[in-house]
Amino acid sequence: MPIVSLAGLLGQPDVTAFLRGIVSRARYGNAYLFTGPAGVGKGTAALAFARAALCDRVPGAAPPAATNADDGGLGLFGMDAPAAPEAPAAENLPMLDDACGECPACRKSGSLQHPDLKFLFPVSGVEAKLEETISETLQGMRDDPLFVFQYDQAASVRLSLTRELQRELAFRPYEASRRVVIIRDCDRMREDQYSALLKSIEEPGASTLWVLTSSRISRVPATIRSRCQTVKFAPLPERAVEQVLEQYGKASGPLARTLAALASGSLARAVALSREDAAGQARTALAMLEPVRARNQAGLWKAAQDATKFGRAGREALRRTLEFHELWLRDLLAARYGDGSRPLVFAEREAEIRAEAAKTDAAEIRRRLMVLEEALRSIDGNITADLTLFSALARVGGARLGEGAWPAHQTARWDY
């Protein structure tokens, strides 16, 4: 994942304009918090912003003088320090609002080797292999333009890394006029780490710029959020995700369209899904429509058990199955009420979709979507996958499970 320029960010025009404006004026805040859904380019934007801030051809890029700013310009022993040599002239080139990509600083930051770029991210595994794990991850980013960070539950920003960072912050930047610290997925830090970094983020000085990213903003302490300027990222357009998948050979045609729709605006999720048999998963999920339509409860129960491997397939498999059914309902809406400007997600089943759409109005589609959304929200709780899938699809088909039972359900789920 070579560092792109701010101009090359995908599908975030407002963010691009905002960050380039900061670079052009050289008016950097203490810290920025990039928030938004996972996989929409927050980490890529943070690295692009850092590359621009470190570029030799942006305003304020002159290296710091070799004096102590806190002692009135005196050297280490109280004497006047010799003037720092001036940086070589850049041939009177105009100042930029983005990384030039050609200067030594851009080449170093583009390969994640700039000494004033500190990039911290969650890792898993034992502490003894920490350096090896970090090195492998950075090499993977250099080699793969669509590198995807994937974490297990134990992944975290290690305490040893934040302690080392604290020690480095006591010194001046090595080459540039500023040091840029990026903490990716900062919600995976411990409480004591937040406390240790709080003062540094609040008053970093003119030589340090903080950029934090998180897709789980509620897990970032309010003390950190209040000291950062929040930059919000939006889900990517489906067409943009589809084009990237085709450009890098991850998927093409109907499969790329299905993955882009299933990813809900997340390029990282679309890339991860491209490594799986998404087409086969879609066929398995939509095969349940037959017993649903026939209200064949026994057949639906067997299909739910097969799809979830008798409840052992995990929550992500259940989530995927429900999302395929949501995409089916989206196609029903598009077939009945759309203008035909965009192809259906399941275009190979267009005749079947149009036949069902002709007898399904918006109110019924809304009811079914709310049933599926309720099931999706329940996934993070203590559920049984096959029972959840069976219950949701039976209710999608019109079954009023639990109606008339005592005590009555307080929200009358069947009356959506």
Description:
By secondary structure, this protein is α/β, with parallel strands linked by helices. It has 2 domains: 6-232, Rossmann fold; 277-415. Helices cover 45% and strands 6% of the residues. α2 (42-54) packs antiparallel against α3 and α9 (253-262) crosses α10. The radius of gyration is 26 Å and the shape is elongated. The two termini are 45 Å apart. Residues 65-79 and 81-90 have low confidence and may be disordered.
Notable traits:
single chain; 416 residues; alpha/beta; Rossmann fold; 2 domains; five-stranded parallel β-sheet; 17 helices; 5 strands; 6% strand; elongated
Rg result: 26 Å
Number of helices: 17
At the fourth level of CATH, the homologous superfamily of the largest domain is P-loop containing nucleotide triphosphate hydrolases
Described by the principal axes of the CA atoms, the overall outline is elongated
Number of self-contained structural domains: 2
Write down the CATH topology of the largest domain.
Rossmann fold
Largest sheet: 5 strands, parallel
Percentage of residues in strands: 5-15%
CATH class placement of the largest domain: Alpha Beta
Oligomerization state = single chain
Mean pLDDT: 86
Computed structural class = alpha/beta
Short description:
This protein is an alpha/beta fold.
Q: Topology, please?
A:
Layout: H1 13-25, E1 31-35, H2 42-54, H3 104-110, E2 117-120, H4 130-143, H5 159-168, E3 179-183, H6 191-202, E4 208-214, H7 222-225, E5 229-232, H8 238-247, H9 253-262, H10 267-274, H11 278-286, H12 289-294, H13 297-307, H14 315-337, H15 350-357, H16 362-378, H17 385-396
Parallel strand pairs: 1-4, 1-5, 2-3, 3-4
Helix pairs in contact: 1-2, 2-3, 8-9, 9-10, 11-14, 13-17, 14-15, 14-16, 16-17
